Amino acid sequence: MPCLKGEADFAVTVAEVLKKWDSPFSVEQAIETHTKIVAMNLESLEVVRALRRSGVGAYLATNQHEYRAQYMSEVFGYADIFDGEFYSCRVGSMKPNPDYFHSVLKSLPIPPERLLFIDDRERNVAAAQSVGIHGVEYDMGEGVETLRGILRGYGLEICL
C-alpha cells in the first residue's frame, strides 16, 4: 500500500519481493509486466471524449503506483483524454480514504455537489459520497449503455 500512496518506491518493493521469493526475474522485467497489466476500455473512453466535446469535464481517479501512473498517462494517453488525472501515488492517499477525495476537491474549482464519481467499488463510491460528491457504482462489464443511462440520470446526454 505505501507505493500506491507515493510513500515508497515500487522498484525497491519489487526488488525485495523478488529476493524473498528467489525469483529469476529482474526488477525491470517484473515492473514492465506488472505495469502493462492494466486494461483500457475503449468504449468508456469514447464516453469520456463525448462528455468533453459537450463541455463536461472528465477526471480520472485511480489507485496506482508511480510506474503504472506514468504508463497510463503517457502510453495510454490519459493526460490528453482526461481534463485531469488523480493517481493515488501523486495524491498521497488512496480511495476509499476520504482524504483522497478531499485532496481531489482542493485541486478542482468545482464544488463537490457538482461532481459525479463513478467507480466499480461500492466502498469508493461511499467514500466520495461522504465528502458530498455524487457517486454511482458501475462496472465496465455492464456495458456502455448502462454508463450512458447513469449519465442521463444526472442530466448528461451524450452522442457517441
From TrEMBL:
Lineage top rank: taxon: Eukaryota
InterPro entries for this protein: HAD-like_sf, HAD-SF_hydro_IA, HAD_sf, PGP-like_dom2
SUPFAM superfamilies attached here?
A: HAD-like
Official protein name in the record:
Sesquiterpene phosphatase astI
